[in-house]
What does this fold into?
Amino acid sequence: MQQTWRWFGPSDPISITDIKQTGANGVVTALHHIPNGQVWTKAEIQKRQHEVESPGGTPSGLNWDVVESLPVSEAIKSKSAPVSAHLDAYKQSLRNLAECGIRTVCYNFMPVLDWTRTDLRHSFDNGGYTMRFDVVDFAIFDCFLLQRPGALQDYGIETIEEARERFATFNDLDKTTLVQNVIAGLPGANDTWTLSGILEALAVYNGITPDDLRQNLIDFLAEVVPTAEALGIKLCCHPDDPPFSLLGLPRVLSTLEDFTRILNAVDSRSNGVTFCTGSLGVNEDFDPLEFIGQHGHRIHFAHLRNTTRDGARDGAKRSFIESEHLHGDTGIVETVRALLAEERRRKAEGRDDHSIPMRPDHGHALLHDRSDSTLPGYPLIGRLRGLAELRGVILACG
Ligand code: DNO
It folds into this structure.
């Protein structure tokens, strides 16, 4: 397995030379500054490649191996104008990436939201902290802070009552913090999102059912996969995080069945999976071995991370905490073992993509991470610990 590290570009407080010291041998990055729907030009891609390959003019020995993410615009997800211009731009970006030698491209198809948590600093007794999603806190955000029309109907009576009681104890700081925590996962979170801006973005999806969204995803893939195939690019879709509907939005990549439908609808190796154990694992029906057994040959990228379900639940909505990489509801050791078996199978078949890039996804904030200004989930020491533990598992199971 190729051990990669996510880098957010020159503004990331963790440098390429720091990444070298983690022992990672590949870099995952994106052109975060280019607005969704616009072309990634060759010049911009090459500039970023240069920043990865020779920071300060010294060769790093690292390459930009995986794109995370080439974002799919809201126009494409909701199939509204200017969808065809955005599809053309997506295909042009794929051509430019392939010409620069980059052929693994991750994306997601979650409307409006990307990942969502209610607490970015849930503390442990050891002084470290992690991210957590709490169903009741999310109901508070949705029903009483955002005041989304129809929100109350999306939760059970018990959740609403608990949310009302808890909200009555909230001071202004609690309210602002909860809003900021949820907003942190919105795409381009550094731009200013307001509550009314979120309501406007949600309104675009009024009347778009899960079946409609699934069809929009299939139409997107039918359009871009032939281009990707011709270029030798492997697209890999990231699962919904968390794997259930939020804010009344449809979600279509939460379960094994969801992936099966999408992979079968556009049956090409270029239509693949980002296997994120942390996202899929929140669902108690998730079985990593079953997933790898069915779709292992289409897994082009792995995010190895663990979660533990805790606290309140409401239908499919589950509270969960991001636990240590090796300890949680998902058996990471057996998952790694199955991914290594998949790699051997590919090698025997003569596939040149037998090495699956993985990265330690997220990490706890530990030691001096707590005072560093890294992005939520992306501290240096916590991820370094995760990578070191996973590297041990890879070596032991290999
Ligand atoms: C969060 C990440 C996601 C992921 C995108 C992929 O930490 O796993 O933001 O990069 O959903 O498109």
User: Anything to note?
Assistant: The longest strand covers residues 306-314. The longest helix spans residues 210-231.
